[in-house]
Design goal:
single chain, 191 residues, alpha+beta, four-stranded antiparallel β-sheet, 4 strands
């Protein structure tokens, strides 16, 4: 008991000593942080794209980040409300054509079926193959279940008018949310 009392007394004495005057520190002027860019393995294999990051001012980065976060917030609401017509309004024409293509829809149908098989195997059920025939099917079966609560954690400028938006999942992995392009003054999804 005396030992505990002595330790408490020492701690109190040490904590009462005056500390030296703090030295004012000037914040260093740092260049804008470069966004972390990670390619997912399947992206690297599927494309031989070398990602070039364009350097921009901190002001432009912050302004664009706020714009993209607001845009994704709007998209989340549109997707949660299953508003297909509003969603396609955010797509660049070329991207809309791509998600409407037979090849794209067949690939997503296969991916959806494989995912459903994995889920079914863990629950003891049988997976039903859902065939995606239209961009609306893609929206209903792929976009709505997976994109209604997205969050933008970082962006990277691919050009003066193209940005890649990222999120970080609960395991700390950087994931691509959207590739966006500024078209006629509005950000549009291009991938």
């Amino acid at each position: 008991m005396k030992l505990i009392g002595s330790l408490i007394l020492i701690v109190l004495v040490l904590s009462c000593q005056s500390s030296p005057e703090p030295v004012p520190v000037q914040d260093p002027v740092l260049p804008p942080a470069e966004p972390l860019v990670i390619h997912l393995p399947e992206e690297v294999e599927d494309t031989e794209e070398v990602l070039e990051i364009v350097e921009v001012s901190e002001e432009l980065y912050q302004t664009t980040m706020a714009d993209i976060q607001a845009l994704v917030g709007e998209l989340n609401g549109i997707i949660r409300s299953r508003n297909y017509n509003a969603w396609i309004g955010y797509l660049a024409e070329a991207y809309y054509q791509r998600v409407s293509s037979r090849e794209f829809l067949e690939e997503r149908t296969d991916e959806l079926y494989r995912r459903d098989q994995i889920v079914a195997s863990t629950t003891g059920r049988t997976a039903q193959r859902r065939i995606l025939r239209t961009a609306r099917d893609y929206f209903e079966h792929i976009v709505v279940p997976s994109r209604s609560n997205d969050r933008v954690d970082d962006i990277a400028f691919l050009s003066d008018n193209q940005v890649r938006a990222y999120t970080i999942d609960n395991r700390g992995t950087l994931l691509i949310l959207y590739d966006l392009e500024l078209i006629d003054g509005n950000w549009r999804i291009v991938n």
